[in-house]
């Protein structure tokens, strides 16, 4: 499957498909979040999802130039408005952070400084046997573990995600998006 098979949740005003890539410019005040700390629920971020009935591995290359607080782009896996994960680079405290938000009724948020080029990175999500594995790569070859956690049963919608809670205008290019059967690699196999 590819971006051509995707269906928008919160279609942005400005986007296009070109040579197998998806180009998006974020709308103002877009976000995905449920309750924790801030007390509000937002389900307004841009997400182009393809369906996977069973277990899968998805990956995507993300290119963007983050500028403002909470600018973010990456990959989302969604079961429902109350069950999802988003992962990617998010601008926070003046730095590009590798970030993931797991939501099962309420959102958590995990961040860490990203030591590579935040303007060009890869993400991989594998869901198999009720477990989600997120991996990040600076080159599309070496895939360190980012997160491992239980995850609700599908069917799943998976694909590129981007948001700008504080502004509009983040330009993002998503490319090399694929979804297929779960890779089945050992946990510490970083290929």
TrEMBL record:
InterPro entries: ConA-like_dom_sf, DUF1349, UCP022704. Pfam families: DUF1349 (PF07081). Gene3D superfamilies: 2.60.120.200. This is DUF1349 domain-containing protein. It comes from Methylobacterium terricola.
């Amino acid at each position: 499957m590819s971006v051509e098979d995707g269906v928008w949740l919160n279609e942005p005003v400005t986007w296009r498909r070109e040579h197998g890539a998806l180009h998006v410019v974020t709308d103002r005040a877009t976000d995905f979040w449920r309750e924790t700390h801030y007390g509000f629920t937002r389900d307004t971020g841009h997400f182009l999802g393809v369906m996977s009935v069973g277990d899968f591995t998805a990956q995507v290359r993300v290119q963007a130039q983050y500028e403002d607080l909470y600018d973010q782009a990456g990959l989302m896996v969604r079961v429902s408005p109350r069950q999802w994960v988003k992962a990617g680079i998010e601008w926070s405290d003046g730095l590009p952070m590798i970030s993931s938000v797991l939501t099962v009724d309420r959102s958590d948020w995990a961040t860490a400084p990203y030591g590579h080029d935040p303007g060009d990175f890869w993400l991989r999500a594998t869901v198999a046997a009720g477990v989600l594995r997120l991996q990040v790569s600076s080159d599309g070859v070496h895939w360190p573990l980012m997160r491992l956690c239980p995850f609700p049963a599908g069917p799943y919608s998976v694909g590129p995600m981007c948001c700008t809670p504080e502004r509009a205008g983040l330009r993002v290019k998503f490319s090399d998006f694929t979804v297929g059967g779960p890779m089945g690699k050992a946990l510490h196999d970083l290929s």
